[in-house]
Amino acid sequence: MWHYSNGGVQQGPVELAELEKLCREGVITADTSVWRPGWTDWISILATDLAEQLHVPLPDGDTWEICAYSGDTCRRSEMVELGGYRVGAAYKDRAVELLHQGGQLPVASGKDNASGVVEFGHLLREGWHLLAKALPSLLPLWIGIQIIEQVLTHLVAGSLGFLAEEGGRFAVMVAIGNFVVVLILNNALNTLCVLQLDSVQAGAPMPLGRLLSRGGTFYFRLLLISVIVTIPMMIGCIAFVLPGLMILTRYAVADVACVREDLSAMDAMKRSAALMVSDFWSHLGRVSLAFVVFSFLPNTVVGFNKGFLNKLSPDFPDLGFEIMHAIASLPSLMATAFLFCYFRELRYTERGMVQSS
Length: 357
What we know:
This protein is an alpha+beta fold. It is built from 13 helices and eight strands.
């Protein structure tokens, strides 16, 4: 939800869709200031990501143009010419490096921004660039959540100790209990990560306290998405692999859509599905690759080396494995950043914002 102010008169809260309408009607201008829960002060709309999202009319005859490297909408006065295309000044060095490596500017290529290896790497770089600014506040949260997860999983095993003699039943109940714990805590981390990435992109990173406070607004929406998507996805992956990956792809950006556009869980899932429907198989390949790199591979490597890891700490059974298992979850932050940028690129593609030479 957003609040806006013209001439000192504060209005709101309103949703992003309402702001878009107000911008078209000329109510939102370059002189408008905005605020949202979690921010410490009002900010000029031109200093936020909203300006480019809404295409707020710019002063002095300036116009909005699409950066051929990032897909971002930038002020033309702040762009540079590169290879016949306009690139945001902040992306000039990275665009030059990409061209020297034989790559193509993703938007300038005239293709869907993620139709090939170069574009996938582009989104990884942009995701990391965004995540790096959010890490100072996210790392303490990640550490705290890992500690809580270890405590709770041990409590689950201890509370089910009366079933220990039943062998298989005990193992199943512990696995289910641990799955619930991991689902709840991972959703908390994912919610906070998406919120902070959104705040960083808008130009105003939230302090830790406000980030935690605002997390409650979206936590249960994203938890509902996780429950609806994760269980069928896992069943699909275990049974036939492809159906699970199709479910994962269809709703890959639902979490980001929920936060960026302030949607309900069901509306966010519909939004993700609508964005993914075009060129679905290309999206499936990219999302699957990200899933393998940031989730499946790290956890599989740790799982296969459980025996070796435990030998590193013979006096503390499972300590080495638990530490490495926790570290293996760290790439999930990068996965969230990747999907955050993915959602942004899908929105640009949806709007047909492809610059030609």
